[in-house]
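Students often ask what a 'structure token' actually looks like in practice. Rather than answer in the abstract, let us consider NADP-dependent oxidoreductase domain-containing protein, a protein of 313 residues. Its sequence is given first.
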Amino acid sequence: MNSKCHRVELNDGHFIPVLGFGTAIPSEVSKSKATEATKIAIDAGFRHIDSAHMYQNEEEVGLAIRSKIEDGTVKREDIFYTSKLWCTFHRPELVKSCLEQSLKKLQLDYVDLYLINFPMALKPGEEYFPIDEHGKAISDKVDLCDTWEAMEKCKDAGLAKSIGVSNFNCRQLEMILNKPGLKYKPVCNQVECHPYLNQSKLLDFCKSKDIVLVAYSALGTHRDKHWVDQSTPVLLDDPVLASMAKKYKQTPALIALRYQIQRGVVVLAKSLNEARIKENMQVMTQKTCLNLVLLSYISNFSGHPNFPFSDEY
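Now compare that with the structural description of the same chain:
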């Protein structure tokens, strides 16, 4: 870790800020909130902005970034922007077009990091989540290695400075790493990771391969009933976090964030609340270690041949 500027070096020589701002927002919230929150985050000091094609708000996030560039708060090179390839674009001939759609919405020339959002290829088309009459995902037969080759071409074209993956398990990462003719290793694997799911085995594997682990849902995931089992515990209500927060005169959120940073994990924090966005920049010095339950799940896609969450790590 580069402590002076709070960045981690990636295996391709680029650097990623250790703390990022997540821009996924609930569908019932106005997309304009993404613009407002991203502006607040940049003003608060965030330089790592994480988004995705499927969030459907890159136009709004891009507006915030450009406005902060235009008013002199930052330069483009100060911002580390991540976008992601959605599952319906896994066919090699579609990969570049998905990235180009994101760049057009953002009105940017390149992204700093482009990720395969999930290892599961879905039927191409207008629907983000194509499902059959039984409510099951309609998969597409695409080799992940072919998708990765198309990602490599995006890097060669200068459309993405770095490329990586998200929600990949160890087995799926090894498929890419062992691909004949591999040109670029994934620089990172972005996964759900928090004190209730510490991903210790996956973290150790990634470190052994010089792949950075990036944690989303680091403060516990949102409580959307379509994505989260409502019987699972609320992370920030955890008594251990509450006790540590009291001891160190901090908040449970700051305890959870600092825990990740001290493990060498790049961590994403998401909020639409101005006070909490500013607070999340104040990560502190204590850690804890729990591993209880995976909060996020996508039940409709559990039958997909590349569903990543059935393996131990």
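One point worth highlighting: Confidence is low (pLDDT under 50) at residues 284-297. Ask yourself how you might have guessed this from the sequence alone, and why that guess would often be unreliable.
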